Amino acid sequence: MALALEDVTLKAxxxxxxxxxxxxxxxxxxxxVLGPNGAGKSTALSVLAGDLKPxxxxxxxxxxxxxxxxxxxxxxxxxxxGQHAAMSFPLTAYxxxxxxxxxxxxxxxxxxxxxxxxxxxxxxxxxxxxxTLSGGERQRIQIARALVQLRPAAKDGARRYLLMxxxxxxxxxxxxxxxxxxxxxxxxxxxGVLCILHDLGLAQEFSDEIVLLKxxxxxxxxxxxxxxxxxxxxxxxxxxxxxxxSLLATL
Length: 251
Ligand SMILES: Nc1ncnc2c1ncn2[C@@H]1O[C@H](COP(=O)(O)OP(=O)(O)OP(=O)(O)O)[C@@H](O)[C@H]1O
Description:
This protein is α/β, with parallel strands linked by helices. It has a single domain, classed as 3-Layer(aba) Sandwich (Rossmann fold). Helix 4 packs across helix 5 and helix 10 crosses helix 11. The longest helix is centred in the last third of the chain and has 16 residues. It is globular, with a radius of gyration of 18 Å. The site of adenosine-5'-triphosphate has 12 residues, from strand 2 and helix 1.
């Protein structure tokens, strides 16, 4: 059981954005995806989410080809926290989080929404107009919404997958840690998490596995403790080995 890319190649016009990319997000695991700007991380996440269709290869969710899974079913088992949390609808923060909760009704829904908002430290923002929130506040609301969306699957014992594109990008240190603790708790409770990160230290600290992407291909993939070496980081980001080694020594 897993959410996996199998030999995925994706092109846009003449550009090849992903070349034979394979990796899997297994239940109970947090996979961090790292790599230079433009490496294909967000593209890979969108393919895994079922939002972009590859020209070759396939996405497999718990043994089924994703192309055969209805969008409505997909919405119950995977949630996406995107890179840009902009939303121009005149909704309150509470209403945005509750968008994830449409299968619930009544007091149960309120409890689940409030619990997820508390987990992301945004309960005090519940009545605020979403468009007036700061970037980091919006990001935390989006994570709370995704957690709400996946709650029914958790209760049914179904597999579920949380896909996050740079969820910590706009967050202060306390909330970066909180967001990754929530993602970690989600994995520890049996969900699978994919998290695109630029921070090597946070990736090392919170993930089980690290996938390194470069130029649309998997550069390296392995257990978090073994993947980030001075030589690998140097080659991945095209920086001197002495620099990557001194950076890694600070992690
Ligand atoms: N529709 C498209 N047509 C052509 N090129 C595209 C298209 N969409 C994305 N790209 C290019 O594909 C590459 C991969 O983009 P992607 O957003 O996946 O990178 P990323 O690894 O997430 O980068 P970042 O760290 O900057 O967020 C980039 O060079 C981007 O410019």
